[in-house]
Amino acid sequence: MSKPYYITTPIYYVNGVPHIGHIYTTTLTDCQTLYQRFKGVDAFMLTGCDEHGMKVQTTAENNGVTPQQWCDQVAEKFKQCFTEFGLTNYNRFIRTSDEDHIKAAQNIWSILDKNGYIYKARYEGWYNVSDECFVTDTNLKDGVNKKGEACKVTIDGDVPCVWHSEENYMFKLTAFKDKLLEFYEQNPSVIVPSFRQQEIIQFLQTGLQDLSISRSKAKIHWGIEVPNDADHTMYVWIDALTNYLTGAGWPAENKLWPADVHVIGKDIIRFHCVYWPAFLMGAGIELPKKFFVHGWWVAADNRKIGKSLGNASSPQEMAQKFGLDALRYYMLSEATPESDCQISDDLVVVKSNADLANALGNLLNRCVMSKILPDQIVPKHEIIDKLIKNEAEIGPFETQLKDLVANVNKLFGLVDASMENLRTKDSLLAIMAVVYQINSLLQVSEPWKLIKSSTEQHSLIMYTAIEAMRIVGTLLLPFLPIKAPVILRQLGIPESDWKINAKILTFGYLQQGVPIGTEKGILFQRIEMEKVEPVKPEPKPKKEPKEKKEKKPKAENAEAVQVKAEPEKQE
Ligand code: MSP
């Protein structure tokens, strides 16, 4: 028996409120989970929170609560937010403070240790306490700390650093260089998009350093204890990445692993595509099948949407103004893993009005309104059978009809191929192309006039429109989980046929002569621009805004740090 499809989001830090980045990653993962489930695949979706580390420890202290209490509050906020956004299809919301996760993280550590990939070393250098990482000399300049005393500060951000020396556990990342390169050579499409795979290959060829994987417990007590050494806690990334194994039930059972896809943002690619496969190789565990790496959401002025939201509405505000499915549609139809993507009230409004209210909504209305479909049944006629069988001589609209049927019959294949790589934009482009084609068939054939002149042609056109719309509505189920069911209900399609497979999505599956749905109503309201309140203007920036740097893996910053002790264990 094949294992369930296993898909994951990153686990989210608990030091902020959920923002558009978190909503998008979870939405995309939710969409793929639903897509698989509508295909009949048993899909397991994992999401959750990344809870350990210095920042959480300090934030909790500053708020007068324990780290556990702090994490409980924020994890709850994430869950509530996902519920508000209808993102409720995950199977588990994992938290790194969960008991089974702590055991899994300690277990993988012990295996890596047993296999000789962990050693102890003295680390010495300038330490960025805020980001919990050592900083190389080249990334430092002279500056002052909060008390005004002279000290080294980071070049980016002027963060004061302190000279720090401590004994840490190291992971022999360098031992995996060749194996990782070989893995990426043998699996050329494991990272989507492919240019990201090239970036990782280049990094592997030039940039590998062993990785510090523990911190002294005296400094960071809010972490998972290193097995057999109560003085150390695990560095957050070995703890965090292992969540994917915990979610799979590892080590007790292994019914989900390997993951079919890890969905991640571009800023955490090295952690996922270098460290994680190395940890897994070191522990003798199979590697994930795919990494899908998306870009960032930026405001209409191309600046990353800041926490202050001075340059954009919050996703919650947008959802309230435009509706959940309109926002979801915008994100899934605009984002491509190749680049960053803009989002703003105006952009969502324009897209929603054009695609959803005008094209899709009007089309549905035309398919079911009694003025155009007086009998309120799916038309029945021999000439429809001729079209389904692709026979000739079906009247004046033969070319348009046959083109449309051909495209409708190709649609599932196209959508399925793009969803293989989570390319929702391509899927929605293909679906919308058919919507526009159905609309233009109606425009050309004017079935509202055919009622009087030709029952045969009226039946033919209306069956085609309704049938094509059924296929469109079915394929839209994972993308518009609230509105696609409305389409199908208005057409009268029984829930037993809300499935994504070749049989159901072949033109002609819809029975002739059955009643259409009794449910009526407008699918998407047009959004009037003037009713949308303008976004508050951003306070004047102090200096020219620069693009936010992608998160640097912490080990990279630690390049120049001297590793003084000899490895305790040899390879
Ligand atoms: N905790 C780590 C992940 C550990 S996974 C084992 C983390 N958390 S995060 O909360 O900072 O980010 C989670 C995800 O949100 C990342 O994939 C990140 O790229 C994504 N986004 C954060 N801001 C974003 C945008 N503005 N746009 C799109 N996604 C971005 O990193």
Automatic annotation (TrEMBL):
Boundaries of every Methionyl-tRNA synthetase anticodon-binding domain copy: 400-533
Q: Known EC number(s)?
A: 6.1.1.10
Q: Where is this region: Disordered?
A: 534-571
Keywords, alphabetical: Aminoacyl-tRNA synthetase, ATP-binding, Ligase, Nucleotide-binding, Protein biosynthesis
Q: Where is the composition biased (Basic and acidic residues)?
A: 534-557
Query: Which NCBIfam families does the UniProt record give?
Result: metG (TIGR00398)
Which family does the entry's similarity section mention?
Answer: Belongs to the class-I aminoacyl-tRNA synthetase family.
State the organism named in the record. Hexamita inflata
Keyword rRNA-binding assigned: no
GO BP term, pick one:
methionyl-tRNA aminoacylation
Name of this chain's protein: methionine--tRNA ligase
Question: Which reaction(s) does the protein catalyse, per the Swiss-Prot or TrEMBL entry?
Answer: tRNA(Met) + L-methionine + ATP = L-methionyl-tRNA(Met) + AMP + diphosphate
Which GO molecular-function terms appear in the entry? ATP binding; methionine-tRNA ligase activity
Query: What range(s) does the Methionyl/Leucyl tRNA synthetase domain occupy?
Result: 5-367
Q: Name one GO cellular component term.
A: mitochondrion
Q: Which InterPro entries match?
A: Anticodon_Met, Met-tRNA_synth, Met-tRNA_synth_2, Methionyl/Leucyl_tRNA_Synth, MetRS_core, Rossmann-like_a/b/a_fold, tRNAsynth_Ia_anticodon-bd
